[in-house]
């Protein structure tokens, strides 16, 4: 066991000598022997060298975050009959529409999703206002790469006792009462011991690094590629520099320009053209970019056809990919934010107004999900219509049970319950 891990367990079980432990965004990686992780994968690098420099990664995260930001978060009041009444005014509604003075709901959600998708963590700082009671009237997002967590050992693991925001000369100590930490589950050693979420980029660090290095390699190939060929004199006497320059000017004048594209040009000079094409290795390197794109898409559960994968761009693929974008990537990530808000913000409003509020995602304006809901409703109606025909027939109860089982693949118990309820309703 490494000294770092021994030190962790010593502090955890070694009595009252040290009550609190602070794990910074960079110290996280000292808990493992893997120097590769320690040296390469701190939170700032995942954002600065991953999201900000790898074009495919930026495109994927931008697509998910902006699509999620477009889905409205609505406020509902739950009635005594357990019905949901949509709220279009009130303090909680106003807070959801304008979480803080600098961000509307769209900006807040986009920012929060980018934080989650890049670092695996979201930190929301709630603020109260004089005269509004104990409810939060402003919600601000803290940059995860500048947050340190102070932990305290408890019976079931570790609890956060303080969040520390540290940017250059600015330092603020924040109580967990005013900070909501939303994260992706992290089963690694440092995740369990520190409470930090696992970034998808961290999990796919090698794919991200390869994609970044590939971009650099492609840029180098194109930068050094230059001219597409050489024109050399086949005569007995080589050209001097002045003659070569004159020939270059003549060639540029005769063959350069879009209006000369595809045109055959003749010459009476004895020259030879030597093509300078890319080597098979260069071509293979550039083509491997599609593989990196697919690897990055897999990290986020999105289909590569949405990002110009040339081998995966049929209409049906694109349609299913767009639907999958919502169900596999956007909604699950946005739902984590909704659960966090329902835990962090809503209880105080419930107490203040002696009511039960809920925040939920509005999915009604997503055409791909609406189409699926419509088809399901139509199928349910046809099934119900079929039930009625069987139940209203002159068959015996046993015959009705068997007909329902055969027509709709029901179990005997399910079919008997349907027939039994119909019989009781008639009586």
Model description:
This protein is α+β, with helices and mostly antiparallel strands. 51% of the residues lie in helices and 17% in strands. The protein has a four-stranded antiparallel sheet with strand order 1-6-7-8. A three-stranded antiparallel sheet has the order 3-2-12. A three-stranded antiparallel sheet has the order 5-4-9. Strand 7 and strand 8 form a beta hairpin. The longest helix has 30 residues, at 315-344.
Short note summarizing the structure:
This protein has helices spanning 3-13, 35-40, 43-51, 55-69, 91-97, 105-119, 189-194, 200-203, 205-225, 241-255, 280-287, 289-300, 315-344, 346-353, 367-391, 397-408, 412-426; strands spanning 21-23, 73-78, 84-87, 121-128, 136-142, 147-154, 157-167, 170-174, 179-183, 229-233, 271-275, 357-361. Helix content is 51%, strand content 17%.
> Would you tell me the structural class of the helices and strands?
alpha+beta
Oligomer: single chain
Number of strands: 12
Largest sheet: 4 strands, antiparallel
Mean pLDDT: 78
- Radius of gyration over C-alpha positions, nearest whole angstrom: 32 Å
Q: Could you give the order of the helices and strands? A: HEHHHEEHHEEEEEEHHHEHEHHHHEHHH
Spatial shape: extended
Q: Tell me the helix content.
A: 40-55%
Strand residue content: 15-25%
What count of helical segments does DSSP give?
17
């Amino acid at each position: 066991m490494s000294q770092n891990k021994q030190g962790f367990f010593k502090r955890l079980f070694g009595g009252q000598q040290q009550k609190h432990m602070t794990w910074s965004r960079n110290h996280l990686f000292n808990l493992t022997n893997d120097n590769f992780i320690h040296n390469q994968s701190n939170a700032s690098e995942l954002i600065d060298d991953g999201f900000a420099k790898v074009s495919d990664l930026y495109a994927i995260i931008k697509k998910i975050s902006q699509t999620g930001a477009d889905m409205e978060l609505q406020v509902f009041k739950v009635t005594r009959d357990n019905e949901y009444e949509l709220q279009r005014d009130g303090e909680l509604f106003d807070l959801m529409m304008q979480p803080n003075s600098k961000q509307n709901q769209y900006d807040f959600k986009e920012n929060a999703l980018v934080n989650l998708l890049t670092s695996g963590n979201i930190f929301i700082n709630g603020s109260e206002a004089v005269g509004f009671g104990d409810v939060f009237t402003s919600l601000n997002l803290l940059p995860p790469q500048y947050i340190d967590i102070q932990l305290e050992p408890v019976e079931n693991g570790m609890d956060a006792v303080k969040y520390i925001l540290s940017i250059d000369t600015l330092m603020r100590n924040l109580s967990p009462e005013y900070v909501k930490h939303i994260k992706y589950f992290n089963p690694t050693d440092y995740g369990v011991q520190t409470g930090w979420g696992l970034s998808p980029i961290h999990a796919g660090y090698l794919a991200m690094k390869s994609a970044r290095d590939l971009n650099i390699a492609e840029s180098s190939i194109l930068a050094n590629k230059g001219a597409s060929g050489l024109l050399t004199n086949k005569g007995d006497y080589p050209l001097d520099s002045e003659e070569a320059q004159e020939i270059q000017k003549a060639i540029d004048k005769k063959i350069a320009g879009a209006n000369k594209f595809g045109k055959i040009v003749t010459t009476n000079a004895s020259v030879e053209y030597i093509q300078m094409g890319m080597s098979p290795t260069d071509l293979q390197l550039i083509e491997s970019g599609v593989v990196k794109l697919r690897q990055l898409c897999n990290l986020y559960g999105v289909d590569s056809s949405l990002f110009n994968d040339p081998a995966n761009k049929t209409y049906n693929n694109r349609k299913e990919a767009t639907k999958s974008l919502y169900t596999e990537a956007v909604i699950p990530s946005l739902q984590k934010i909704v659960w966090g808000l329902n835990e962090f913000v809503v209880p105080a409003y419930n107490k203040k107004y002696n009511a039960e509020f809920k925040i939920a995602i509005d999915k009604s304006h997503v055409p791909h999900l609406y189409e699926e809901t419509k088809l399901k409703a139509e199928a349910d109606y046809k099934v119900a219509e079929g039930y009625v025909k069987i139940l209203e027939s002159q068959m015996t109860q046993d015959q009705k049970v068997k007909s329902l089982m055969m027509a709709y693949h029901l179990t005997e118990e399910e079919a008997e319950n349907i027939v039994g309820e119909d019989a009781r309703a008639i009586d």
